[in-house]
Amino acid sequence: MEEITPASLDQIQTQYAREISALQDIRPHAIITTNYDNFLEMIFTEYTPIIGQQVLKLNHSSIGEIFKIHGCISKPESLILTSDDYEEFTTKKKYLSAKLLTYFAEHPLLFVGYSAEDPNIKSILCDIDEIIATNNELIPNIYILEWDNEITRKALPSREKLIAIDSHRSVRIKSIVADSFDWVFKAFGANGAIEKVNPKLLRAILARTYDMVRCDIPRKTVEVDFQMLENAINVEGQLPKIYGITTLTNPTALNAGYPYNLTQVANKLGFKSWYHANKLIEQIKDQTGINIKASDNKYHIRIKVGNTDFSKYSEAAVILLNSVKNNEEYNLEI
């Protein structure tokens, strides 16, 4: 299979070059294939292959992935090839279909390179029909693209196809018949949901995203600069910093920036107890509606050590609270 697969797209015959270019422009959220070869990885170089049992085991980013559900020649042990392999695959197919249903429900699904009578297609459509379609209704957002070199421009092929999935049931999906896939791919790529956005970049962001929701932090609109994010992807350690995440590789620098606990802040203000410094923080909250302890900022930072949170304060916090103590005008920089 390696020998018959082109080594690069430059080796593809000219008449197929436009089709492949149009296919690339679709920039699909995900690709699902039963093919063993690596040709799709060559077409979609920014996508990550998820091979065989990995489809069931791994947490996926839901974007920029090629699901190779029958395995891949890069991992021969993953191939679904023998009768026993197919029996095992059929046993686990329900779970696989359930994992893929989110794609089917939320995005258009285009079957390419399969006949409507393909057993794999019938099996997947059967599971989809049970959940999405009822009463033999047309399954929304699912198309099957079939090639017919004898079709003419004046032909009017059916726009729907009724596929028998067993002796008692059939499903209806949308049908496209063409002698060239060029215009079909262009139509699906015309308004790509992730146009001009690198799928590899989105996967990297999702893979490095943590749940950092703090209910006491005001919600703000965030303007996304994809160029800045893409640059950050290429520099080790930069992307986490955009999210405000970093490892304490230099705790000395952190301690220098936020050297005080609340008791030490109180002592610098002439108080004997942290309580009085905390009262000044509460006074700021009452006056401005902002609690400087509710987020990490120039005055305060919260550090988690084990299961315990510690608040540390900067010299700027001491200056701010001193102004509040003396009833002086102050400006918050949050």
Describe this protein's structure.
The protein is α/β, with parallel strands linked by helices and 334 residues long. The chain is 38% helix and 16% strand. The protein is built from 13 helices and 9 strands. The protein has helices spanning 14-26, 39-43, 54-57, 83-106, 119-131, 182-188, 199-207, 226-233, 238-242, 251-257, 262-268, 274-288, 315-325, and strands spanning 30-33, 48-51, 65-68, 109-112, 138-147, 160-164, 170-178, 300-305, 308-313. The strands form 3 sheets. The protein has a 4-stranded mixed β-sheet with strand order 4-5-7-6. A 3-stranded parallel β-sheet has the order 1-3-2, with no helix packed on it. It has a two-stranded antiparallel sheet with strand order 8-9. Helix 5 (119-131) links the parallel strand 4 and strand 5. The chain is elongated and about 90 Å long. Mean pLDDT is 78; it is low at 210-218.
